[in-house]
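Researcher: Structure for this, please.
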Amino acid sequence: MIRVLLADDQPLIRSGFRALLDIEDDIEVVAEAADGSEAVALAREHLPDIALVDIQMPVVDGIEATRRIAADPALAGVHVVILTNYGLDEYVFHALRAGAAGFLVKDIQPEDFLHAVRVAARGDALLAPSITRRLIDRFVTQPLHTGAGADLDELTNREREAVALLAQGLSNDQIADRMVISPMTAKTHINRAMAKLHARDRAQLVVLAYEAGLVAPRNS
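Model: Predicted structure, token format:
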């Protein structure tokens, strides 16, 4: 059973998401929060698998709530998926750096929303396709702050290659095709890279790849 915490300051939005989740046999909404501070407290109380967190909330916003959840060792099993009405690039990067496992716009189709919850519960990075493209376009067309990222010397050449492809927005199957390996081997490369770089999840691994310069910026 996938346990979900809903955090949004608009009761109608929470009710809509809850209505979608409650009819699923494998998903249970365990708590609802109206602000980021309450979301963190309820996460500690209920230890959900997924925290669906609105990015703009009173008292404590979604990015800070995500940062507090990600920094708490007791909440290591909680995967935060950020929700927003807008696909704003600066929010995407800050949310991922804060420790979010994914990022979705609220106008997502119901079936895609339910799929997103299940993907995030497996520990896979989750970004809405349009946001993934914007994130990649932004960070491969501007200078990177090299030296501030992870130490990629810890990785083998094949692990570096897999991480670079992940940072370009490719799935495990696409990485496998590009590297001429099995999807399981591709997943193994990614998981080992996460462990070596102490990345919380695949989304954070993408951020580290950009910050370390593994994905080279294009000439503008």
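Researcher: Any notable elements?
Model: The longest strand covers residues 27-33. The CA atoms of residues 107 and 176 lie 31 Å apart.
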